[in-house]
Amino acid sequence: MSDTPNPDLPFLGVLGGMGPLASAQFMLRLTLLTPATRDQDHLPAVLWSDPRVPDRTAARLSGGEDPLPWLLRGIGGLEAAGCGAIAIPCNTAHGWYDGMAAVTRLPILHIVDAAAEELARLGVSRGRIGVMGTAGTLAMRLYQERLESRGYDCIVPEPAEMEALVSPGIALVKSNRVADAYAPLAEAARILKARGAAAVVLGCTEIPLGILAGPHAEIGLPLVDTIDALALSALRWAGR
Amino acid sequence: MSDTPNPDLPFLGVLGGMGPLASAQFMLRLTLLTPATRDQDHLPAVLWSDPRVPDRTAARLSGGEDPLPWLLRGIGGLEAAGCGAIAIPCNTAHGWYDGMAAVTRLPILHIVDAAAEELARLGVSRGRIGVMGTAGTLAMRLYQERLESRGYDCIVPEPAEMEALVSPGIALVKSNRVADAYAPLAEAARILKARGAAAVVLGCTEIPLGILAGPHAEIGLPLVDTIDALALSALRWAGR
């Protein structure tokens, strides 16, 4: 590292607030995953944390307000701030990926591609993979299509398991009750393991916050933290 | 809370990256300290995390590059993003408070005032207070002047303790070695307690990250986490 900071280095743009705890955790993990010995070695980043973005699952499944105008406002703000790429630490928001990519010249790092690279890094390069996510993410088949095109076979929780375990676990994290979220989320992961999953992708950025708040090693299979996966993807973008 | 988000609500502007771990932790604590049951209840915020800002202590004590132009660039970015107030989760940067306040119409929440409000909330309203911080913060007497005007008597670590304990502890946090930072920082706090401090203000945002990574209750006196204090001040600004 040179001692003179480069003012022209672009910022990483982080379109966040969905939820705000997940995007704060993304910033924390981005920092901790960066090889650094002083402030000046870290990545310049701008986090646009707008928790007012309408609920993505409600928009997709029950006619709720369209989040796209709010997402585009954030992208405009990140462009104006001098960002060179955009990371979005919310899986469900990737259902509007094409609409966002159509209006910006900046690359948007795709969280499902980041998760796939993390699966490969964990040595899981084919076979049955469990995917947990919001009902919106699973209904849009965000993971299923992209992972199946890479040769994986995806399984997801049954509707009754979504209703009893995954959706309540996500809601608990969104209301700051992280420790309470562990039990239902870990149970859903165990069920996917029992159905033959070789790994489980935590395909909603609230899920790792809940699962990692408890004794997650006991679940006994590789878990892909999509917050970390996206942070590693951002570091690769920055050449770190 | 109404179900219709208000697009005109101003963002909280966070001028961060000094260090990046402290400002990420600020975003995390801001979220966890907000009474909320869903994303939409949280504060919209923009974090401008620019770790390239030249070292504040080096600028003040050894003729290093002036950080003010970098700080003003961040304030301009936060103004352009639509922020209504600015919080700076770096104590030493408050040495340039007047220079920043002179160029912006936005209120800048002062971290020392936030710490004083936290001391009062903890029931410590007068008497001897220990202050830990960077050598730059202590040399600028940022805490001493503002706390003494409120009737406190401030004591700080001796130069040899700064060199052996506090400065190395801060540097360990900045290089992501949070757990290793506990022992020297806790020892410095214990020394201040032995000299009669009724509470210790952790007046550098790296210090709570190190102290809270270990068994801090054993130190046996109230510790003011300036990250939390500033987050609570921001929530008061937002009327939460």
UniProtKB/TrEMBL annotation, chains A, B:
Entry's family note: Belongs to the aspartate/glutamate racemases family.
Whether Repressor counts among this entry's keywords is: no
Highest taxon of source: Bacteria
Q: Which UniProt keywords apply?
A: Isomerase
In its UniProt entry, the species of origin is given as Teichococcus globiformis
Q: What InterPro entries does this protein map onto?
A: Asp/Glu/hydantoin_racemase (IPR015942), Asp/Glu_race (IPR001920), Asp_race (IPR004380)
Question: Which protein, by its recorded name, is this?
Answer: Aspartate/glutamate racemase family protein
Pfam families, sorted: Asp_Glu_race
